[in-house]
Design brief:
Elements: E1 6-10, H1 14-24, E2 29-34, E3 49-50, H2 59-79, E4 85-86, E5 90-92, H3 97-112, E6 118-121, H4 122-128, E7 140-144, E8 148-150, H5 152-165, E9 169-172, E10 176-181, E11 187-192, E12 197-199, E13 202-205, H6 211-216, E14 228-235, E15 244-246, E16 251-254, E17 259-263, H7 265-268, H8 277-291, E18 299-307, E19 317-320, E20 327-331, H9 335-352
Parallel strand pairs: 1-2, 1-13, 2-9, 5-15, 13-20
Antiparallel strand pairs: 3-8, 4-8, 5-7, 6-7, 10-11, 11-12, 14-17, 14-18, 15-16, 16-17, 19-20
Length: 369
Amino acid sequence: MKPQRVAVVVGVGVLGASVGWNLSRSGVDVVFVDAGRPGEGVTNWSFSWANASNKTASKSYFDLNVAGMEAHRELARTIGPDSWWYPDGHLRWAADPAAERKLLQTAELLTSWNYAVEVSTGAEVRRRLEPALTLPDDIPVLFYPDEAWVHGRHLVNRLVSKAVAVGAEHRFGTTVRNISTGADGSVRSVALSDGSRLEADIVVNAAGPDAADVAGLVARHLPMRREPGVVTRIGCAQVPVRRAMHAPHVEIRPDGNASVVLHSREIDALIDTGQDPSELAQLLHELARQVVPDLGNGHITQTRVANRPIPADGFPSVGAVASVPGYYEAVSHSGITLGPVIGRVLASEILSGERDRLLTDFHPERFAA
């Protein structure tokens, strides 16, 4: 009789939860390990926008993100969409002619790749979609109807709960201190900071910003970028917007019944100047009020600066590392978009040993020393 496989999933954001859920429902004994609570790290502090319109750096990366969007739709059918899945589309417009031309060129490229995009005017958008916006009547606005925003923490909790229901365990509030390997280099066990040891033949490194440290435990170098981002939540009695949007200087999306999330690359650029996060939050709030005046009635409730989990070349690192049998990586920016598809195809690779064609360009061993 073949021995039961045991997988330790390190990091329980959307990537770790997705891989772990897919493994557990396929009969693998899964143990989730995270220093915090599930979904409360980077997953909870991202713009959480499921899209491929912003993923045109390569066709293979675009295709992976399109598959991610479809995997979300399938996941919503499988586990139910309530509380986490909001497929209301995405709006984007620019402030100056050069940026506007670039957006329209991107829209033409996406159309040639059979990606749904509609070009409207500011007046049409206010009339049909978002009456609370302030923007010129004649400005071109791109609407991506197939895009969505995701409540990442709710999704992670749903997936972890479903995994636990079929036998998965969790060790929250603890970290991985050591990964032991056998004479052949394969994974044998994982030592945790609480003093316990887990016998395992699979380790999935889904540790987000800490992924390089986990990789180091198996003597692997995983180069990562340092790209911190600041996200602010605004509490409001009535959420004035229905969908995610990229205005010229700020990104805005709903976050449930009484909250809105704000982010801006321009404000991210100020993180290393020494400004306090509370000051950055006020700048974000001011930018958002210029786009949605009703947000002036809201108040800042939470702000966090978090490091994005981005491998050095900007693309995902997903799959097996041949030098350490049983060790796998699931490390990527845009985890919200990619979580369900990476969870599915990486679990399949772990179980079958066969690599999905979607991951051809994103193998971890492109970073081999």
